Amino acid sequence: MTPPADTPAASTEHPAPAAAVDLAASVPAGTEETPFRRLAVDFAASRLAVLGLVLFAAILFVAIFAPLLSPQNPYDLAQLDVLDSRLEPGARSGDGKHVFWLGTDDQGRDMLSAIFYGIRISLGVGVIATLGALALGMTLGLAAAYFGGRTDSIIMRIADIQLSFPAILIALVLLAVLGQGIDKIIIALLAVQWAYYARTVRSAALVERSKEYIEAATCLALPARRILFRHLMPNCLPPLIVVATVQVAHAIALEATLSFLGLGLPITEPSLGLLIANGFTYLLSGKYWISFFPGVALLLTIVSINLVGDQLRDVLNPRLQR
Amino acid sequence: MTEPTLQVENLRTHFFTRQGVVKAVDGVSFEVAQGRVLGLVGESGSGKSVTGFSILGLVDPPGRIVSGRILLEGRDLRAATPEEWRSIRGNRIAMIFQDPMMTLNPVLNVATQMTEAVRAHQRVSEQAAREQAREALVRVGIASPDERLDAYPHQFSGGMRQRVAIAIALLNRPALIIADEPTTALDVTIQGQILAEVQKLCRESGTSLIWITHDLAVIAGLADAICVMYAGRIVERGTVDEVLDAPMHPYTRGLLESVPSRNRRGAPLRQIPGMTPSLLRLPPGCAFRERCNRATETCFSDPPLYELGGRQVRCFHPIHAEDEAAEEA
Amino acid sequence: MQSIVVLFVMSALVFVGVYAIGNPVDILINPQADQEDIERAIKGLGLDKPLWEQYLVFLQRAAAGDLGKSFAFNVPAIQLILERMPATLELATAAMVIAIVLGIPLGLLAGLKPESLGARTIMAGSILGFSLPTFWVGLMLIMVFSVHLGWLPSNGRGPTTDLLGIPVSFLSWAGLRHLVLPATNLALFNLALVIRLTRSGTREAMLQDYVKYARAKGLSDARVIGVHVLKNISIPIVTVTGLQFGALIAFAIVTESIFAWPGMGKLLIDSINVLDRPVIVAYLLIIVTLFIAINLAVDLLYSVLDPRVRLADAKG
Question: Tell me, what's the ipTM?
Answer without folding.
Answer: 0.81
